[in-house]
Amino acid sequence: MDPLLAFAGLGVGIVVGLTGMGGGALMTPILVLFFGVPPLAAVSSDLAASAVMKPFGGWVHARRGSVNWGLVRWLCLGSVPSAFLGVLLMRAIGDGDRVQDVVRTALGAALLLAVVGLLVKMYRTDTAAADGDGPAPIRVRPVPTVLLGAIGGLVVGMTSVGSGSLIIVVLLGLYPALRPRDLVGTDLVQAIPLVFSAALGHAFFGDLKLDLAAAVLIGSVPGVLIGARLSSRAPAGLVRAALIVVLIASALKLFEVPTGIVLLIVGLATVASVAEGWRRRSRVPAAPQDRDTERETTAKGAESASGVSPR
Question: Is there a domain that residue 291 lies in?
């Protein structure tokens, strides 16, 4: 077992625990770009690892009641068979360099869509924080929900990306009243049978590399648990901004964009992320205790200026 691969799994697991996103979108390109794993083997190994890793987070959300089980059922009705179909589609394309090139291109496109998903989720989180996070009744729309699951499952079966990042984007559009924690919990639970179906399909055709999946799991499972414990303290917005930069760089490299252009784009994205972070910090209102302290200080200053001693 490669210890560096387990360490990479640990880092990805921590990011997933902190943000709820980024598993397949990070691990698969890491396997391809840094460890030289063929794209198809990387996809299958990441799916197998996710099939073991995601139930940990899903169990936590289920215990907390942050899962809409009606949405889960309709999503799985479309995603589970579609994920297996995505594997069959990859096999129909052919073996060798051709299928690897198709997977590489599809993975790059999925990563860019994942970036869009993260941006939408960041905006959604800010809006929820501003408007309040109270529960709202959700009326499940079966047909579009099943179609969403089917499209998401197809993408996941082909690239391993999308069980979190991509599906969550359309869920936001279909169910804007869904609370952020319910959104994450519902998406995470529906992803369990989805990635299991896709991983089973790859294993059936012999694409799965058990040594790779085991190495990723050794690091990612404790990483998810660590990230979940740190999630209440770490600046998740900063982690998501860094994740966006990494995803953009990975997608561009998968599209074989020259390194100089990749560095330029990543530099611009980093500057934009830092600027956005400062803007968000400047808009954060003072905490209630801070406002009380400020009022008390102002009152004392006024009393001193008027010559009246405070009691």
Answer: no
Query: Is 310 within the bounds of a domain?
Result: no
- Residue 238: pLDDT band with limits 50, 70, 90: low
Other Cβ atoms less than 10 A from the Cβ of 194: the count is: 31
Q: Looking at residue 179, what is its pLDDT?
A: 74
Number of domains in the chain: 1
pLDDT at 102: 74
Range of the domain at 34: 3-281
In a domain, 289, yes or no: no
Residues in the chain: 311
Whether 299 is in a domain gets the answer no
Please determine, for residue 76, whether its predicted confidence score (pLDDT) is greater than 90: yes
The mean pLDDT of the chain is 75
The amino acid sitting at 82 is S
What confidence score (pLDDT) does residue 174 get? 83
